# Entry
Amino acid sequence: MANTNMNKVRTSDLELKDRLVSIQRVTKVTKGGRTFSFSAIVVVGNENGVVGYGLGKASEVTSAIAKGVEDAKKNLVKIPVINGTIPHKQEMRFGGSLVMVRPAAPGTGIIAGGAMRAVLESVGVKNVLAKSKGSSNPHNLVKATIAALCELRDAYSVAQVRGISMNQVFNG
# Structure
């Protein structure tokens, strides 16, 4: 996640849409019995290259979701999306989850499951092939997917880093 700091985005003048990825009832055992609360993981994005995720915990579902959305708005990153897909193949591991995302031809759609689909739709990717291996824990899948997307670089940023023109990037 080396590029994460460079990709930070401000929330002002962004129309963000939130997607609930997972909600779980969690229990705290105390001397007086069990205390139930809810944990929600939420992904927000403007469907134009900006995405973030957040975790909210509260005694009520709606409060947990609201806290998750607020947390997600604090962790927004910019992702390069070119012609509705990603620039290149990327793999990333977070905890026990391994995700792989590959660019796809127009008309393919989002070939991804559950937590990964929510992240990719929030980014605004229209055509992508994605696969998750290992753990299907939604928390780790969301974190691994966003980490993989943060590692993506478009041709313009590669040219800037190398100090060469765009033609030289493609022609060697």
